[in-house]
Design a protein that fits this description.
Layout: E1 2-6, E2 11-15, H1 20-34, E3 39-50, H2 56-65, E4 71-75, E5 80-91, E6 99-103, H3 117-136
Antiparallel strand pairs: 1-2, 1-6, 3-5, 4-5, 5-6
InterPro entries: Alr0857-like
C-alpha cells in the first residue's frame, strides 16, 4: 500500500505492507473513539518525478503493462512526469487540502518487480527527494 500524507505545504509518501482496507478501518475506529470527523471518499493523487531519474523508464514500461488503470503517467514538460494514482482520500472534510491518500497497485505477474510497483515507486520518490535536497544545498 502507498500512503501519501498531504500537509499545508508538502506531502510525504510511505510504503506500507498493510492493505488500504485494514488501514482505513483502523483510522475510522480511531476517529470514532476520539470523536473526530473523518471523510473517506474515492479520489486521485498526483506528484512529480524527474524524467531523468534512473528507473523512470522501467516504471513507464510497468505502467504500460498494467491494465488496472490505478497508476498513470503523463509528461508535464521536458524535466518532469506526473504520477497519478487512484485510491481513497481521508480528511476531516471533503473540502480539505490536508489529509491522507491511500492506494494499492497490483504488479503484473512476471513484471520483474519482485517487491512490487508500490515499493519501486516509493524508492523512486525517495531518490527524487534526495536529489532535490542536494540541489537546494
Amino acid at each position: 500500500m502507498l500512503k501519501l500524507t498531504y500537509t499545508e505545504g508538502s506531502f510525504y509518501l510511505e510504503y506500507l505492507t498493510q492493505s488500504p482496507e485494514e488501514w482505513v478501518a483502523q483510522r475510522v475506529i480511531l476517529a470514532m473513539r476520539v470523536g473526530q470527523i473523518l471523510c473517506v471518499e474515492p479520489s486521485t493523487a498526483s506528484f512529480l518525478l524527474p524524467v531523468d531519474l534512473p528507473g523512470v523508464d522501467l516504471l513507464r514500461d510497468e505502467v504500460k503493462r498494467d491494465d488496472s488503470k490505478i497508476i498513470t503517467l503523463c509528461a508535464c514538460d521536458r524535466e518532469y512526469i506526473e504520477v497519478t494514482l487512484r485510491g481513497s482520500w481521508l480528511s476531516d472534510s471533503s473540502e480539505s487540502v490536508m489529509g491522507v491518500f491511500v492506494t494499492t497497485i497490483n504488479s503484473a505477474p512476471n513484471s520483474g518487480f519482485a517487491s512490487g510497483v508500490e515499493f519501486f515507486l516509493h524508492k523512486l520518490w525517495q531518490e527524487a527527494q534526495a536529489c532535490a535536497s542536494v540541489m537546494s544545498e
